[in-house]
Amino acid sequence: MAAEYRAALIPHRPMLPAAAIGGLLIGFCVSVASLRRSRRNPTGSSVFRALLPGLVVLVIVTFALEAPASFLTGTRNAVRHFIIGLLFNAVRILALALTIGHLQAVRAFGSGLPSQHMRRYG
Questions:
Q1: What are phi and psi of 75, to 5 degrees?
Q2: Rounded-to-integer distance, Cα 89 and Cα 26, Å
Q3: CA-to-CA distance for 17 and 87, rounded, in angstroms?
Q4: Higher pLDDT, 42 or 98
Q5: Is residue 113 classed as helix, strand or coil in its secondary structure?
Q6: Considering only 3-12, 35-44, 63-72, which range has the smallest mean pLDDT?
Q7: Contact 82, 66 (CB under 8 A)
Q8: Distance between CA atoms of residues 97 and 76, nearest Å
Q9: Residues 90/92/94/95 CA torsion (nearest 10 deg)
Q10: How high is the mean pLDDT of the chain?
Q11: Cα–Cα distance between 105 and 1 in angstroms, integer?
């Protein structure tokens, strides 16, 4: 399924640097938004604070990049390719947001699992 999606929409060689730059940019945006939210509202889960900007980025990426790439290229299975791309991006972006939130929680509470520190201190 992934090979069909790449063959239909993406030239392979230019995809690698573009994906790396896009991932770094998305990670930076989610981190900054999550840190700014934590300054305004220090209570609550840092994972949730990172997940919300991740969802916003997912919506932006879907409508700004994925929809035009799927529907304006003239492929036969545009809806199928759109759904496949949406699922790939959802897994990637939300996993990135969860990882950023977890790392921020570990950084805030020291080493170990954040849930252990939350039970002990609050």
A1: -80, 160
A2: 11
A3: 21
A4: 98
A5: coil
A6: 3-12
A7: yes
A8: 33
A9: 140
A10: 76
A11: 36
Looking at residue 84, the DSSP 8-state letter turns out to be H
Distance of CA 60 to the CA centre of its chain: 11
What confidence tens digit (pLDDT) does each residue in 16-56 have? 677 788 888 888 888 888 878 777 766 677 788 888 888 88
Is 93 exposed, middle or buried, given 0-12, 13-18 or 19+ CB atoms closer than 10 A?
buried
Rounded CA separation 57/97 (Å): 10
pLDDT band at residue 121 under the 50/70/90 scheme: very low
What DSSP line would sit under 17-78, residue for residue? HHHHHHHHHHHHHHHHHHHHHHHH--SS-HHHHHHHHHHHHHHHHIIIIIHHHHHSS--TTH
Q: 116: which 2 tokens?
A: 């252990």
